[in-house]
Amino acid sequence: MKLGVFAVLFSEKSLHEALDYIKDSGLDTVEIGTGGYVGNAHCNPSELLADQAKFNAFYEAFQTRGIQISALSCHGNPLHPNKDIATEHHQVFQDTVRLASKLGIENVVTFSGCPGESDYSLHPVWITCPWPNDFSEVVDWQWREKVIPYWQEQNQFLKEYNVRVAVEPHPGFVVYNTETLLRLREECGDQIGANFDPSHYFWQGMDPVACIKALGKENALFHFHAKDTRIDQQNNPLNGVLDTKSYKDIANRSWVFRTVGYGHGEDTWREIISSLQTIGYEGAISIEHEDGLMSIEEGFTKAVEFLQNKLIKQGAKELWWA
Prior knowledge:
Elements (H helix, E strand, L loop, with lengths): L1 E5 L8 H10 L4 E5 L11 H6 L1 H12 L4 E6 L9 H21 L3 E4 L22 H29 L2 E4 L10 H11 L3 E5 L1 H7 L3 H10 L3 E6 L1 E4 L3 H5 L15 E4 L7 H13 L5 E4 L8 H21 L6
Parallel strand pairs: 1-2, 1-10, 2-3, 3-4, 4-5, 5-6, 6-7, 7-10
Antiparallel strand pairs: 8-9
């Protein structure tokens, strides 16, 4: 495994500045945003595919620094009921796959998407319980009419380009846990797997280690994000994990995203990394920063220190990258 970072953290920097900063931090791999909700500050796939000189310059920026790209990421909603949004996100996804193939990159990261409740919806609708029966009917319609047909087609497209899609389970989308990820893979094809982000599992009350092992049995874990979640011990017992308050309202939320090590301790993260090794995962540990209590630089630096230095020094070296 290699330690890396999701470079959208450094969208305010130029690509060269961001890569120099990442390299100086001791990392050898990066995940690059290509559009959708994460933006394309460092990589516009349609431009690079259309202009060989721009493609060559992009490629050389990584080669000259000895930095590997672990994934291209275009987190979006190609199933959005707004056709303009769906078309845009679908096009970005397919352009990202084409670019990944040209660069020799194995993984493209995105969301599964979420449709509306019918062909007349204006916004996505995510169902969280089976009753009243309308809810169960909506979920069945979403999967049967929208999700499965779309991803069956994309699975074939991915095969043509020899690229895998690492779908990131996330509440608000039809794939949000282990069961829904494995259903998508079973229904649509084995080019589909998971981008595993423990913070989303912590938030929902799942055990990341158990989920990693379940995905590993199906060879379905393709890429990994290093991000943590802190469960608030006063707000969560009162209100549970379903929380629509702003991420900025940290004092009143049931949970918040944190830098690794600031939601769960070393023992928990050792078990997570150990479970990755157990299933034979050899990809990147890609640091993602969404910590509202730390600046980008602080959160990134502390994540690198925690993952690369502190755990190794305390006896986990055999589980880590050289």
